Amino acid sequence: MLELNKRPIAVFFDRDGTINEESGYLSNPDDLSLIKGAAEAVKRLNTLGIKVIVISNQSGVGRGYFSEEDVVRVNRRMTELLSSRGARIDAIYYCPHHPEDNCECRKPRPGLLKKAALEHSIDLGRSYVVGDKKSDVELAGNAGSKGILVKTGFGSSQLMAMTTAPIFVAEDILDATEWIINDLT
Ligand SMILES: [Mg+2]
Ligand SMILES: [Zn+2]
Q1: pLDDT for position 158
Q2: Which ligand is nearest to the CA of 59?
Q3: Is 101 a catalytic residue?
Q4: Which of 9, 41, 112, 115 is the most buried (most CB within 10 A)?
């Protein structure tokens, strides 16, 4: 298939509860463990030339629970664990603000995703957002992308609260990724 002139597609993954196990305001890299299948999922997207971008709310910074340096260290551990399994994250964006700051970057607001799309020339209409919260699915809606809810992390508990319907409810990140790849072909 000739795909000249086509801008790249991205899968925007949430971090906590989606790529790594949810453990509540994670700030110590040693407490990070990948969700089963995460590296495999990212690797498959890498192989297909689909950008893998992490969009994460880290209000623990705004709440004074930890610093931005802690966020960076946890992010680094995540990328190291993934890359040791042959998987590459193309970029990571996070919102450090408190929910009451009313910033433009806290999900479900699309500030970070729009920034990422601009910096990586992403075609948002053909891209996906995958996360374990209502706000991830709403982010997809606000950005004109397709939203997938994973049942890992807080995912199972979010189903009843959904106001925007996800295009798919996946067992986990690998299930979501397989669905996306199937949706693209
Ligand atoms: Mg999450
Ligand atoms: Zn923010």
Answers
A1: 85
A2: 2
A3: no
A4: 41
Mean pLDDT of 104-110: 97
Distance 172 CA to ligand 2 centre (A): 26
Alpha-carbon span 71 to 28, nearest angstrom: 9
pTM: 0.95
> In the chain, which ranges are continuous DSSP H helix?
38-47, 59-62, 68-83, 111-119, 134-143, 155-158, 173-184
Q: Identify the active-site residue in 14, 136, 172, 175.
A: 14
Tokens linked to 154 = 């807080």
C-alpha 151 – ligand 2 centre gap (Å): 25
Angle of the 68-83 helix axis to the 38-47 helix axis, nearest 10: 70
Ligand 2 centre to CA of 63 (Å) is 12
183 is catalytic: no
Q: In the CATH scheme, what is the code of domain 10-126+139-153+167-184?
A: 3.40.50.1000
